[in-house]
Specification:
The complex is a heterotrimer of chains A (218), B (91) and C (225).
Chain A (H helix, E strand, L loop, with lengths): L4 H21 L2 E2 L9 H28 L2 H32 L8 H22 L4 H25 L15 H43 L1
Helix pairs in contact in A: 1-6, 2-3, 2-5, 2-6, 3-4, 3-6, 4-5
Chain B lengths: L1 H20 L13 E2 L7 H47 L1
Chain C lengths: L1 H19 L1 H20 L11 H26 L2 H7 L4 H30 L8 H26 L5 H28 L5 H30 L2
Classes of the chains: A mainly alpha (218), B mainly alpha (91), C mainly alpha (225).
Chain lengths: 218, 91, 225
């Protein structure tokens, strides 16, 4: 593990300890009350979900056109994190929606597109696991299409009449709400980097094992 | 063939969920959050289980993932050590 | 040169298909069975629901399309013709476009049978505005086939390719299906809402452009070893 890993992990743990205090001290929202506090984990995980999808897509493109296995490892790690943060977003969202909208789920653009983006990531992992040889390139092609979905997810809520709050919420947040949510986002982002590094290391170790097997046979 | 039919049912559920889901009148789309200081009392209780479930799920999911990666790293590390000691013994 | 390669690939596929009509018949029958299964499943008091026509039409096209894609490339794999195609001194994107047109032609043939069938079973006035319906079907089929041809081609050498094709294809093409269904539903209303249909058609057009561009861009690296 690189030198920055352990200090970063300690910082991240501390941030995770501080975040709930900031969240608890944030004011309540006027129409949604207590349940709106889910926002402080729902938004950061949703942003990381999209960022991870972009990371996966960019790494996949570089792998597809250059063939460097480092990019392939990064893409696979990022895809797992898309699934992880996607599932967090898709669970915390409905829990919030149950109280705020009265329904667990709505088939509006953002929710449908996010669910489809998440399923693309799951399909990526299935392909890597069960696709056999050559599935690294195929998965890279899939990830590219998945990345094309990301801007659509983000801006769709501004152009369609949906029930999901628009992106205008973020720049107009008062500081009392903005501080906890961006702090939690920074915490999640640091965690994302740490998890990415761990997962890439797993693939590096696996590649080393393969190389050792191959050299033993030679 | 069974898989295709399961896929058919899943896709049909997705397609027909749209009209079925739009039965209630949804509230207005929001453009900004408005903070207040005091919570209206009738809102406190029903929201708490949802909030607790949400935060617990986040912690659980992250924890499970970290454990999964750590476990897989351990498996590979053991195999790597075994291979390297075999190689050393052979040379 | 590009157009010539496209035409040659298309002609090859059509010639092989016309000789046996294997994929055409089996895909068509599967699509018809799909429609019937939906009709039976959704029947209430002996009548099928009237609002189901658009969704059922597009679901049947999607399923039939997946089947056709799998079978078409399975045929290529068995005769190793895909390798021969890739070895030929032809631009890879041209090969892709040729195969895309072949799949679109096959699906168009299926749709020519499905549309009257769905119109009949669900009492939907699908044939009332044939120009609009044709445009919607064409745009949606191209979008679906663009992604499908790419994925089916790249899965030819993978294991478990039969189940992986739908797994990979549906999440990406669901937006195309949704847009197609919404456009067709709008078309089935008694009053013609041209603006709404134009909007969905524009969205379908966007998807088509994005998917075809991405497919053309990645076809070569994905098909090389």
């Amino acid at each position: 593990m690189p030198k920055w890993f352990t200090p970063a992990a300690i910082v991240c743990a501390l941030m995770f300890a501080v975040a709930p205090i900031l969240i608890a001290n944030a004011p309540y929202e006027s129409t949604m009350g207590l349940v709106q506090k889910i926002f402080y984990v729902h938004l950061p995980s949703a942003l990381i979900f999209l960022i991870a999808a972009v990371v996966c897509g960019v790494a996949s493109v570089r792998f597809l056109f250059r063939g460097n296995p480092r990019h392939d490892r990064l893409a696979w790690a990022a895809a797992e994190l898309v699934v992880l943060f996607g599932i967090i977003t898709l669970v915390t969202g409905p829990l919030w929606a149950r109280k705020a909208w009265g329904v667990w789920w709505q088939w509006d653009v953002r929710l449908t597109a996010s669910l489809m983006g998440w399923m693309v990531a799951v399909a990526y992992l299935l392909l890597r696991k069960y696709g056999g040889p050559g599935s690294d390139k195929l998965a890279a092609g899939l990830a590219l299409f998945g990345m094309a979905n990301v801007p659509f997810i983000y801006i769709s809520v501004n152009y369609w009449r949906t029930i999901h709050p628009t992106t205008n919420v973020l720049p107009t947040l008062p500081v009392s709400m903005g501080l906890p949510v961006w702090f939690t986002f920074a915490t999640f982002f640091l965690l994302f980097l740490l998890l990415l590094r761990m997962r890439v290391r797993l693939e590096e170790q696996r590649a080393q094992v393969d190389a050792l097997y191959l050299s033993a046979d030679a | 063939m069974l898989r295709r039919f399961l896929a058919a049912i899943a896709l049909a559920a997705l397609m027909f969920g749209a009209p079925l889901g739009a039965q209630q009148q949804p509230p207005q789309q929001q453009d900004g959050f408005v903070p207040i200081d005091q919570l209206p009392p009738q809102d406190q209780l029903p929201a708490a289980p949802l909030l607790v479930t949400a935060y617990s799920f986040v912690v659980l999911a992250l924890f499970v993932y970290v454990l999964s990666v750590a476990r897989r790293l351990g498996v590979v590390q053991r195999e790597l050590d075994r291979l390297q000691s075999d190689a050393r013994r052979r040379t | 040169m590009f157009a010539r390669v496209v035409w040659l690939v298309l002609r090859k596929d059509l010639t092989v298909e016309v000789r046996s009509l294997e994929i055409a018949y089996t895909t068509l029958f599967f699509a018809v069975s799909c429609v019937l299964v939906f009709a039976f499943a959704l029947v209430r008091e002996g009548r099928a629901p009237e609002d189901g026509a658009a969704g059922i039409l597009w679901i049947s096209i999607a399923f039939a399309g997946t089947l056709a894609l799998g079978r078409a490339f399975e045929r290529e794999r068995q005769s190793e013709t895909l390798r021969a195609l890739l070895l030929a001194p032809a631009a890879r994107p041209a090969i892709y476009v040729g195969k895309l047109f072949g799949i679109v032609a096959l699906l168009a043939a299926c749709e020519a049978v499905l549309v009257p069938l769905v119109a009949l079973l669900f009492q939907a006035p699908l044939l009332a505005r044939p120009f609009w319906l044709g445009t919607i079907l064409l745009a949606g089929t191209i979008g679906f086939a663009a992604v499908g041809t790419l994925f089916a081609a790249m899965l030819v050498r993978a294991r478990t390719r039969d189940v992986l094709l739908p797994v990979l294809l549906y999440p990406i093409t669901v937006p195309v299906i949704i847009a197609g269904v919404r456009a067709t539903s709008t078309l089935l209303q008694p009053e013609l809402d041209v603006d709404s249909i134009r909007f969905w058609l524009a969205l379908l057009g966007c998807f088509d452009v994005v998917f075809v561009t991405l497919a053309l861009w990645t076809f070569e690296p994905l098909m090389t070893d």
